[in-house]
From TrEMBL:
InterPro entries: Kelch-typ_b-propeller (IPR015915), Kelch_1 (IPR006652)
Source species: Cirrhinus mrigala
PANTHER family noted in UniProt: KELCH-LIKE PROTEIN 32 (PTHR45632:SF3), LD33804P (PTHR45632)
Keyword flag Repeat: yes
SMART domains found in the cross-reference section: Kelch (SM00612)
Keyword Repeat: yes
Name the record gives this protein: Uncharacterized protein
Keywords, comma-separated and alphabetical: Kelch repeat, Repeat
Top-level lineage group: Eukaryota
Amino acid sequence: NNKMFSEDLECQKLLMEAMKYHLLPERRPMLQSPRTKPRKSTVGSLYAVGGMDASKGSTTIEKYDLRTNRWIQVGIMNGRRLQFGVAVIDNKLYVVGGRDGLKTSNMVECYNPITKVWSTMPP
């Protein structure tokens, strides 16, 4: 029912590409594109974002430091989230949607690793 999915042709093409790639594993070699090939993080770091702790959703976002071999907390999301999307665009980390355990969220948060600032974006 989301207009982006029903009216945006580019979005529909990307969704169909993703569905074919995941639902037809035997055809993956024929479906290779720049989006499906393994690649390095564009911000050069490994991030662990949210997920589940012992009993509930986590709010933390951590970055792995290769020099010290340790995880460093770089932020806290505005709320607990599970089953969300994460993307890197223009060297910024975006955390999109998900669930808080009870209801679906349309919240979008953005982390800038250069300024180390988190901001809430419009959905």
